[in-house]
Amino acid sequence: MGTGKSRSNGIGAARPEMGLFGPEAADVVAASDARRAHKGANKGAHKGAQKGAQKKGQQKAKKPPIEAVLYAEVALNRPMRREYTYAVTAAFADRVVPGVRVAVSFSGKREVAVVTATATETDVPKGRLKAVDDVLDDEPVLDEKLLELTRWIADYYACAWGEALSAVLPAAMKREGGRKTVAVLYPAPGVDESRLEELEGKPSLEKQYRVLRTLLDARGPVLRKDLTKKLNVTFGPVQSLVKRGLIVIDQVIAAPDDLLSGDREARPRHAALTDDQATAVTRLTEAIDADEFCPALLYGVTGSGKTEVYLRVIEEALARGKGAIVLVPEIALTPQTVGWFLDRFGSVAVLHSGMTDLQRLDMWQRVRSGEARVVVGARSAIFAPVKNLGVIVVDEEHEPSYKQGSVPRYHARDVAVVRAKNVGAVCVLGSATPSLESWRNANQKRYVLLRLRARASGNPLPKVEIVDMRGERDERGKPRLFSRRLETLLRETIARSEQSILFINRRGFAPILWCQECHETLKCNECDVAMTWHKRLERMACHSCCKEIPVPKACPSCTAPALRFLGAGSQRVEEILRLIAPHARVGRMDSDTMMRREDYEETLGQFGRGELDVLVGTQMIAKGLDFPRVTLVGIVSADASLHQPDFRASERTYQLVSQVAGRAGRADLPGHIVVQTTATEEPSIVCAAAHDYDSFALHEDAERERHGYPPYTRLLRVVWEDEDEKRVLEASSHAAKILREELGPHQVQVMGPAPAPMALQRGRHRVHVMLKAPLSGQGMSRARAILSQLHTQRPRMAIDVDPASMM
DNA sequence: AGCACGCCGACT
DNA sequence: GTCGGCGTGCTC
C-alpha cells in the first residue's frame, strides 16, 4: 500500500474539512501532501541500507512467511512523520480496525501502536514486513471522529500522528496492560565473584570490572539506565560483558502505580436566570436541538453568572441524551469549581493533574462506557471520549495555560472549536476578558456573541485607582515600592479588621543584582537570564534552570565592587509591609513558599478563616480566589507585565489588572483597588481600571492590525536548540534562506534567525525564526511542508504553531 | 525518539 | 584492545 491507495481505503482518507475559520482546510490538505512526499523520499533512502537489511532477511528466512490477510497502517509514538505497515494474520483480522491498539515489534522492541487504516494490499516488500503481534482492544479506543481529530492535530501542529494520539490516550493505555518494560542487567547464570579475576587489574577493563562487581553485589536485576548513570559508563562496557557471557540483559515489566482514592466536595447553587442568561441558554439549546455546530463567546464580567449558563446548557444536553466537556484552567480546577458540576449532575468525571495513571485510565473508561457523561478537567480533558458529545465549555478561554508547552503544542480552545465542528456540537467560550482572537471572531459573526451584562448579584463593580509611581520618591529621592496612597489604605484596612491582597509578579527579594560601574546585571551563565537574589538562601538563583550561586562580592564583568540590588519581588513586599504594619498578620504565596499543594491550601484556608490580614503573592493569587472580606487589592507594579517581550503583553496586562481587581468588593463591603504603575496612560491599564474591555479590545485590535499580529495574521515559530552554537546558527539560517527562497514575502514573512528570548538555556544555545502569514492563502501550510522536509535531528528543531508566547 | 553501527582519536 | 564521543541512518 503505502501511498494513495492505503489512505483511500482507510480513515486517513477522510480528509477533514475543518479548521479555525481560516484557511486550515487547505492547510490540512497541503500538510498531508508533505507527509506523503516525505514517505516517498524515505523509500529512496532505503536503497543504501538494503545490504544490511538483506543480512537480517537471510537470518529470518528460516522462519515461515507471514500469512497476511490484511495490512494495517499503524502510528507509533515517535516523532516520525509517517505511519508503518504491518501484516495482519487471519486470527487477528476481524479485530484490526482503525482506532484499535495493537502490539507490534518496532526496531526490535515491542511497542503499543494505534491502527490508523487498513488495506488489503501493500507496496511494502514482503521481506520487510512484520506482523501485528497482538490486538489489545476488542473495540476501538478512539472512535472515527476522535481519530480524525488526532490527524488534524498532527497536520495543523506539525507533529507525528502518533504524538497527537499520545496526547489523547491516557498514559496507561500507551503501555501494554498499563505497564511499561525496562531493560535490566544481571550476572549470567553461574557467574560469581571468581570470574571478576579475569577483569581485575587491567586498566582497559576497569569499566567492565566495575559493572560486573556492581551487578554481583546487587544480587538481583539492576535497571540498565540506573547502572550506566551511577557508574558513569556507556553502553559499550555493558555490551562487552554480554559478549563475554558474563552478564545478561533482560526486558521486564515496570511496577504499576498504586491506585489512590480521591474525594469529592459538593456545593449547591441554584439561582433564577437573568434575561441575558436566559437568552444565552435558549440560543445554545436551540443549537443542541438542531445538532448544529455552534461556536459562541459567552462574554461577561466576573460574577455575571457564566457558570450558571454552563450548568443549564449542560442540563439541556443531558436531557437530550448528549454529553459534555468542561475545560477549566489547571489552576481553577479546585474542589470548589468542580463541586458545582458534581452537585448538579450525578456522574461527572474529573480529570486533574494530581491523578495517577490508573485513576485517569479508570475515568477514561467510565467516560467511554457512557457511565460518566460530563467531564470536567484541564487542557487534556478536551480529548475525553464522551459519547454523543453535545456541549463543550471552555471557561476562561483567554487563559494561556490552554496552550500545551510540549509536543503536540496544541491550543485546547482551538481544538475544542474544531472538535465541536466535527461532531456538530455547541462550543461555549467563556471569559470576562476574551482573547483578541475570540473577540474578533465574535465581532465578525463567526461566533455567536452572548453577552451577560448585569452582575447576577447586583453588586456594583469595584472602583480602581491608578497611582502614578513616577511621583513617589522617598526622602532621599529613591523610588518607593509602596505609594503613600496604598500605604494609607493598607493601614486603614487593617485597622478595620478587613483583608487585603497585594499582588507582585516577581519572585524573590530583589530580582536583579546590578553593577553601578558597568551597568551590567548578573546573569545566569547558562541561561542568559537575570539571576534573582533569594534572601533566605543568601544566594542568587536562576529562575530558568534553577541554578544557584553565592552572592558575588564584585561585578563578574568589570570586577568593580559596586554591586547593588534592584527591583522588588514578593519577599521584599512582605518585608516592607512588616515595617508599614508591624502587627498585621501577613501570608505569602509564591512558588518559593508553596512547594506542595497542601501549603497552598493551608495558606488559603488561613486567609479564608480570617487568620491573616494581608496576603502577598505572585500570579498564583491573581485568579479564581473568592474571599468576601477582602476590601483592598493592590497591584504593586503593573509595569513588569507591560514590558514583556511579547505582542500579547497589553492583553495580558489588561487581564491581570482585571482579574486582580475582581478579588475585591464581591460581597456587601465596598472594595478599593490600587494599581501602581509608571505607565498611567497605557490603554490596557486605563481601560482595565474603567472595566471597559470593549474599548481596550477596539484599541488593541487596531494595534494588532497595524503591526500585523494575530488575529490579523498567523504566526509560526521555529526554535533550534543545541550545545554547539555554530550548528544552531547554520541550521537556522539555512532554513530561513530556504523558506525565503521558496515563499514570497507576500505569502510568508520570514523573520530571523535571531537569538531566542532565552538564548542560552541549560547550556544549550537557542535561536528562533518567526514566520508570519496572512489569514488567507496557503502560506503557512507551504511553510509547514518545507519545514518538515528540513527536519534534521542534529540541532533539535521545534515547531510551534500559533505560539502563545515568544519565550 | 531511541538505538545500532561505524569511524576516529586517545590511552595503555 | 578498549573506551568514549561523535555523526548517520533506520525503524514496516
Automatic annotation (TrEMBL):
<dbReference type="Pfam" id="PF18074">
    <property type="entry name" value="PriA_C"/>
</dbReference>
<feature type="binding site">
    <location>
        <position position="542"/>
    </location>
    <ligand>
        <name>Zn(2+) 2</name>
    </ligand>
</feature>
<feature type="region of interest" description="Disordered">
    <location>
        <begin position="31"/>
        <end position="64"/>
    </location>
</feature>
<dbReference type="GO" id="GO:1990077">
    <property type="term" value="C:primosome complex"/>
</dbReference>
<feature type="binding site">
    <location>
        <position position="545"/>
    </location>
    <ligand>
        <name>Zn(2+) 2</name>
    </ligand>
</feature>
<feature type="binding site">
    <location>
        <position position="518"/>
    </location>
    <ligand>
        <name>Zn(2+) 1</name>
    </ligand>
</feature>
<dbReference type="GO" id="GO:0006269">
    <property type="term" value="P:DNA replication, synthesis of primer"/>
</dbReference>
<dbReference type="InterPro" id="IPR001650">
    <property type="entry name" value="Helicase_C-like"/>
</dbReference>
<dbReference type="InterPro" id="IPR027417">
    <property type="entry name" value="P-loop_NTPase"/>
</dbReference>
<dbReference type="Pfam" id="PF17764">
    <property type="entry name" value="PriA_3primeBD"/>
</dbReference>
<dbReference type="GO" id="GO:0043138">
    <property type="term" value="F:3'-5' DNA helicase activity"/>
</dbReference>
<dbReference type="Pfam" id="PF00270">
    <property type="entry name" value="DEAD"/>
</dbReference>
<dbReference type="Pfam" id="PF00271">
    <property type="entry name" value="Helicase_C"/>
</dbReference>
<protein>
    <recommendedName>
        <fullName>Replication restart protein PriA</fullName>
        <ecNumber>5.6.2.4</ecNumber>
    </recommendedName>
</protein>
<keyword id="KW-0238">DNA-binding</keyword>
<keyword id="KW-0413">Isomerase</keyword>
<comment type="similarity">
    <text>Belongs to the helicase family. PriA subfamily.</text>
</comment>
<keyword id="KW-0547">Nucleotide-binding</keyword>
<dbReference type="GO" id="GO:0005524">
    <property type="term" value="F:ATP binding"/>
</dbReference>
<dbReference type="InterPro" id="IPR014001">
    <property type="entry name" value="Helicase_ATP-bd"/>
</dbReference>
<comment type="subunit">
    <text>Component of the replication restart primosome.</text>
</comment>
<dbReference type="GO" id="GO:0006310">
    <property type="term" value="P:DNA recombination"/>
</dbReference>
<keyword id="KW-0639">Primosome</keyword>
<feature type="binding site">
    <location>
        <position position="515"/>
    </location>
    <ligand>
        <name>Zn(2+) 1</name>
    </ligand>
</feature>
<dbReference type="GO" id="GO:0006302">
    <property type="term" value="P:double-strand break repair"/>
</dbReference>
<dbReference type="GO" id="GO:0008270">
    <property type="term" value="F:zinc ion binding"/>
</dbReference>
<feature type="binding site">
    <location>
        <position position="524"/>
    </location>
    <ligand>
        <name>Zn(2+) 2</name>
    </ligand>
</feature>
<feature type="domain" description="Helicase C-terminal">
    <location>
        <begin position="550"/>
        <end position="717"/>
    </location>
</feature>
<feature type="binding site">
    <location>
        <position position="558"/>
    </location>
    <ligand>
        <name>Zn(2+) 1</name>
    </ligand>
</feature>
<dbReference type="InterPro" id="IPR041236">
    <property type="entry name" value="PriA_C"/>
</dbReference>
<keyword id="KW-0862">Zinc</keyword>
<feature type="domain" description="Helicase ATP-binding">
    <location>
        <begin position="287"/>
        <end position="452"/>
    </location>
</feature>
<keyword id="KW-0479">Metal-binding</keyword>
<feature type="binding site">
    <location>
        <position position="527"/>
    </location>
    <ligand>
        <name>Zn(2+) 2</name>
    </ligand>
</feature>
<dbReference type="InterPro" id="IPR042115">
    <property type="entry name" value="PriA_3primeBD_sf"/>
</dbReference>
<dbReference type="GO" id="GO:0003677">
    <property type="term" value="F:DNA binding"/>
</dbReference>
<dbReference type="InterPro" id="IPR011545">
    <property type="entry name" value="DEAD/DEAH_box_helicase_dom"/>
</dbReference>
<keyword id="KW-0067">ATP-binding</keyword>
<feature type="compositionally biased region" description="Basic residues">
    <location>
        <begin position="36"/>
        <end position="63"/>
    </location>
</feature>
<dbReference type="InterPro" id="IPR005259">
    <property type="entry name" value="PriA"/>
</dbReference>
<keyword id="KW-0347">Helicase</keyword>
<dbReference type="GO" id="GO:0016887">
    <property type="term" value="F:ATP hydrolysis activity"/>
</dbReference>
